[in-house]
């Protein structure tokens, strides 16, 4: 659950309910939305017409869909994370070198959000896309971030987001998670062994500032039959860590002053 506003504005809450309903349903007519949200048709017409006026909703016949203008907002929001511009070329190189799916994820409000994904020639389609949010504890990316956050902040995230199971392999107790985070700090990278998607393994490493603040994480994901033996235990971790090191060096020498002020703001957003 997200942090509760002190004095929430009901009309704005309803507007987002309408938007998320359109996303969940893949588009819908007024009658379907009215049943789905238990909102009168006349009220829905007002919200939909306003959203359409501002180009955030489009209409195809009698069906309303989320508009492409949200892409503009998402792109602008992504650029506020300097780690995106710095890490993107290295994520692309990982995908090209390994042939697999490479990712960049950041944490905000206790959830992980994919900022960039790059597909190699053999990459699998796992359904997630740029902007998809995931629980941190169920992915290698998220666990590598949690391992370098202050303990108090990890506790806050668990209190707010819980430890829901994604598969039978997901860590769902805080004691198990604490042990896993210790192993990640010792190893230098995290492993997701079918904890978020069955049949998929992932290796991820945190992107750290020069004073060990975690700014995000990068990963390589592939089917279990290609993630085994020396490739899983040595080859891919080495490729990943080398690329992460390049990103960290570029951050240290290009953006350190900016990240110092940005991190203070990010902490206040939690």
What does this protein look like?
The chain is of the alpha+beta class and 270 residues long. The protein has 2 domains: 10-67, Arc Repressor Mutant, subunit A (Orthogonal Bundle); 74-269, Beta-Lactamase (2-Layer Sandwich), CATH 3.30.450. Helix content is 50%, strand content 19%. The protein contains 10 helices and 8 strands. It has helices at residues 10-25, 30-37, 41-53, 69-78, 82-98, 140-146, 151-161, 174-187, 229-254, 256-269; strands at residues 57-60, 63-66, 101-108, 111-119, 133-134, 190-193, 200-208, 214-223. The strands form 2 sheets. The chain has a 6-stranded antiparallel beta sheet with strand order 5-4-3-8-7-6, sandwiched between helices. It has a two-stranded antiparallel ribbon with strand order 1-2. α5 (82-98) packs antiparallel against α9. It is elongated and about 60 Å long. The relative contact order is 0.11. The mean pLDDT is 90.
